[in-house]
Amino acid sequence: MIDPSQDLSLEQAFAELSVAHPGAEVILRPGRKEHVAIVRPAGAPPRAFSLRHGRLRKLRATEDAKLPGAALLADEQALCAILAPHIGAVQRTELVAWRPGRRAVVRIHGSGRICYLKLLDPGSFGDAARVFAALGNRGGSLRLALPSMVDAQHCMHLVDAVQGVALRELVARGIAPWSRVVEAVRELGCIDAQGTGITHDFATARDAAVRMLDKGIVLEPSLEALRAAVAAVPCGPAPRTGTVHGDLHDKQVFFGADAAMLIDLESMGHGDPRFDQANLAEHLRLRSLQQSGVDDGVGAHVLDQLDFAAGPDRNAFLAVVRARLCGVYALRPRWKSLVHRLRDETLSLIESCR
């Protein structure tokens, strides 16, 4: 058990949290004044701990001062009063995700209906509100999971649970709906989202990778060379223009009988659609590496079907996305060997672009 009176190093805190929560994913969020560790137990609400001056302290989502709606998590009556006009009687709530200071996600069980309530910090909420206003409702074979309620006072919005099955689950079942995936990604790039005020292109992808590697270096100093190499990559391929989801991966798109549904739209914007394509391909590849240690070629196949030809341009996008994922997984101790592989592969990809 964790001894709150003991001065802990970062590594010791991780080790003790892993022992105290067997089977859970432990994720570090480094900070200037304190580090935050998030514990994701299977089938249980996430937990969070802060490490400051060598002391580990448990955090509470209901006391997250940077989330204006957090207090509602401790006031069921007030929360139900806000939600009732939109979902009816609330039967049960579950905290399913929480990143302290940034967002929390609550699953809401109503009368025969399940919704997700997303609580954001004010800056993120402002971006999300502009995205929702710019997108509007639309038909077609790709549908957008827009909110049924937006509450500016509490910086939160409510989204219905989507129908269909996530791409990640379909792939795990051995189902490969690649033609539908390609159709959905192409249609995404044609949506009008210029009014969102958010840009996603090669430069922003590269800068995001550098920032993530800065965090990953806290636990994995060997990423210093990769960080320097990524920062030195020039502005990249000649840009293309279209709509970009900003975090397109295999858990963000669902497939039903008649249409695909895209979720988590808060950072959708305008830019180079090849960023989304590379991000999706790299996540598909990553799942294969996590499960079998082998690249099954699915990511490359999807890019080929999208006519994103192999060559320096494709390698440049793959390099910055893979570098960012390398930084992400450096903060998850169980994936140390995978991080080393991603580091070496990314350095090779960058070299191939010169």
Largest beta sheet: what is the strand line-up?
5-6-7-10-9
Largest sheet: 5 strands, antiparallel
According to CATH, the fold-level topology of the largest domain is Aminoglycoside 3'-phosphotransferase, Chain: A, domain 2
The name of the CATH superfamily of the largest domain reads Aminoglycoside phosphotransferase (APH), C-terminal lobe
Residue share in helices? 25-40%
* Span of the ends, CA to CA: 51 Å
Q: Any idea how many domains?
A: 3
Tally of separate helices: 11
**Mean pLDDT, rounded to whole units?**
91
Oligomer: single chain
Which radius of gyration do the C-alpha atoms yield?
A: 21 Å
How are the SSEs ordered, and which strands pair?
Blueprint: H1 10-20, E1 25-29, E2 35-40, E3 47-52, E4 55-59, H2 76-87, E5 92-99, E6 103-109, E7 114-120, H3 122-135, E8 142-144, E9 149-151, E10 156-160, E11 165-166, H4 167-172, H5 178-189, E12 199-200, H6 202-216, H7 224-231, E13 242-244, E14 253-255, E15 260-262, E16 269-271, H8 274-292, H9 298-305, H10 312-330, H11 336-352
Parallel strand pairs: 8-15, 12-16
Antiparallel strand pairs: 1-2, 2-3, 3-4, 5-6, 6-7, 7-10, 9-10, 11-14, 13-16, 14-15
Helix pairs in contact: 6-7, 6-10, 8-9, 8-10, 10-11
